[in-house]
């Protein structure tokens, strides 16, 4: 028998993007994101402002997602929302809206772990996109997370490595800030790096045991290096921006690749799926492509709109939970930190 059509409205509001999506089974009908530009002037996300902007954005964003999908709310089968991890004031806006709408429509409510969603985004049905097979390794890299996860099936995942301090996106953004670039600086470092020499300025890689990461030492090394060079030549950054960015990016990629190689060696798993905003980085994408030939890996990089924070990824987890009837009642609580 064919599966009946399941329509999920998904809401994501864990940090500074207000997002809503509508899925029909594992296909995305609409995926709407409102970015909050207000944070740029502060050089980072301001939690109170994020929460207020979510309150302003959530109704128009959900409305746009339903209209784009051409779905009436009465047709919805369930509502999925991000339970955590994230900023509490931001999470509460999404969860309150999801709870009240599910109650009003008399349909199930589904709580989703944001980190599971980054990983399971690979199971969104897209033409021409191969899905990984279980078990696979997921490298989740964003402004808030850096993890290597062994994914055994949809709901059995194990973190085998993670950052002990800054996330890799923070390493990009904080390095960019030292160079005087605006927030978020990751995409700009990527842009200038493409024009520079990655071996121009060698930065020492941190020594962290096993599969864990550390990026705070690299940030400090870059800061001291720039301060020293600027004393000799006040125009050092302007004159060497491309080479500095290429060298920083090269070091970060080496750190990630060293740990991935170790993870493959320890687990014997050669399928690598990446997710999170930093997976947009051109250097990381190229290096992973080359690793397919070099090490016999099979790598999976989702469409850009499914790698940064979005609600379609919440919807695909919602769909899997719907199939296993894994529902919540209105007493479910948001969690800034959440057990994997
Ligand atoms: O997943 P995301 O949109 O939000 C969360 O942090 O959860 O990731 C945002 C992060 C920022 O740190 C941003 O600088 C980084 O992803 N980023 C990049 C690139 N595009 C986005 N970092 C390096 N290269 C890029 N092309
Ligand atoms: Zn995220």
From TrEMBL:
| Listed cofactors | Fe(2+)
PROSITE patterns attached to this UniProt entry? GLYCOPROTEASE
> Which class of enzymes does this protein belong to?
transferase
* CDD domains per record: ASKHA_NBD_TsaD_bac (cd24133)
According to its UniProt record, the EC number is 2.3.1.234
Q: Which reaction does this enzyme catalyse, per its entry?
A: L-threonylcarbamoyladenylate + adenosine(37) in tRNA = N(6)-L-threonylcarbamoyladenosine(37) in tRNA + AMP + H(+)
- Function field: Required for the formation of a threonylcarbamoyl group on adenosine at position 37 (t(6)A37) in tRNAs that read codons beginning with adenine. Is involved in the transfer of the threonylcarbamoyl moiety of threonylcarbamoyl-AMP (TC-AMP) to the N6 group of A37, together with TsaE and TsaB. TsaD likely plays a direct catalytic role in this reaction.
HAMAP family the UniProt entry points to: TsaD (MF_01445)
Family of this protein: Belongs to the KAE1 / TsaD family.
Protein name (database record)? tRNA N6-adenosine threonylcarbamoyltransferase
Which organism is the protein's source?
Answer: Flavobacterium sufflavum
Identify the taxonomic lineage of the organism of origin: Bacteria, Pseudomonadati, Bacteroidota, Flavobacteriia, Flavobacteriales
């Amino acid at each position: 028998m064919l599966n009946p059509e399941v329509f999920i409205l998904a809401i994501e509001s864990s940090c500074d993007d207000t997002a809503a999506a509508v899925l029909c089974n594992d296909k995305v009908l609409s995926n709407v994101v409102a970015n909050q530009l207000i944070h740029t002037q502060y050089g980072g996300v301001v939690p109170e402002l994020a929460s207020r902007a979510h309150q302003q954005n959530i109704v128009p964003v959900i409305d746009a997602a339903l209209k784009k999908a051409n779905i009436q709310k009465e047709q919805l089968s369930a509502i999925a929302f991000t339970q955590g991890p994230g900023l509490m004031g931001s999470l509460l806006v999404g969860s309150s809206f999801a709870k009240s709408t599910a109650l009003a429509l008399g349909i199930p409510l589904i709580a989703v772990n944001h980190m599971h969603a980054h990983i399971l985004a690979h199971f969104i049905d897209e033409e021409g996109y191969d899905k990984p097979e279980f078990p696979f390794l997921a490298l989740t890299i964003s402004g808030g997370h850096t993890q290597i996860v062994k994914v055994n099936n949809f709901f059995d995942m194990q973190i085998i490595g993670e950052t002990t301090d800054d996330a890799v996106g923070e390493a990009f953004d904080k390095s960019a800030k030292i160079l005087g670039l605006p927030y978020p600086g990751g995409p700009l470092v990527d842009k200038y790096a493409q024009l520079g020499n990655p071996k121009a300025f060698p930065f020492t890689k941190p020594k962290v045991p096993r599969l864990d990461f550390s990026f705070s030492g690299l940030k400090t090394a870059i800061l001291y290096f720039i301060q020293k060079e600027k004393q000799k030549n006040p125009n050092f950054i302007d004159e060497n921006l491309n080479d500095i960015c290429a060298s920083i990016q090269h070091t970060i990629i080496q750190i990630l690749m060293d740990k991935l190689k170790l993870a493959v060696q320890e687990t014997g798993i050669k399928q690598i799926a990446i997710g999170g905003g930093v997976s947009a980085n051109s250097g990381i994408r190229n290096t992973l492509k080359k690793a397919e030939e070099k090490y016999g890996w099979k790598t999976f990089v989702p469409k850009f709109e499914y790698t940064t924070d979005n609600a379609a990824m919440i919807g695909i987890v919602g769909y899997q939970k719907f199939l296993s009837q894994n529902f919540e009642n209105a007493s479910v609580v948001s969690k800034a930190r959440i057990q994997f």
